[in-house]
Amino acid sequence: MKTVNNKNHDRFLAEQIEYYRARSNEYDEWFFRQGRYDHGLELNKSWFGEIETLRRAVNSFKPSGEILELACGTGIWTQFLVQYADEITAVDASPEVINVNRARTKSPKVQYIEADLFNWQPDKKYDVVFFAFWLSHVPPERFASFWSSVEKALKPQGRVFFIDSRFEQTSTARNHILENPRDTVIKRRLNDGREFNIVKVFYENKELEDKLRDAGWKIKVENTPQYFLYGYGGGIKTV
Could you tell me the residue range of the domain that residue 84 belongs to? Predict the structure, then answer.
């Protein structure tokens, strides 16, 4: 799908929420390489090996204290973070995925908030802000304001960790086509055939690290060999 200009991105954000609400019961198929996302033994092995790299990176980061998880989704990472956190505030726009998250995590440490992240502001500050597979859904023209909201959510010595997807055809469903890494809106299809247009901005590690540095952040961005990138660092700006 062709790139749209900045002024048109906002009209896709409501459709993006609708898509993830409708996808709540099949989202995990993507993560666990099931159904349309099964690309065969060799590629699945690479995928899960790189997931382990992400988990080791989070282990090394040692998230602790009060954690804010943005776009918490079905709880795959919430469940992982619970072992480190004193408490987690998990925010998502979809009540359906929050229900899946709650059933999976089953932890009194987690407080859930249903909110559109583009219109929500936290009422407290956190030791860690964590988000997985969310930054790529932030329109380019909202990049600065999003990171400003992250800064406002952090305690003075707070830290950030995020994970996202690289541009890789075998990361997505077999009936999805990734045409151009510079496109910022793509078409996604559900198992029942319904189609949605969503914001999807692909970054490479050096590009994103430079972009964050220019915005005043000290964040190191790394990538796994094929599928993922991840960033981590202090929430204190360099300026």
Answer: 6-234
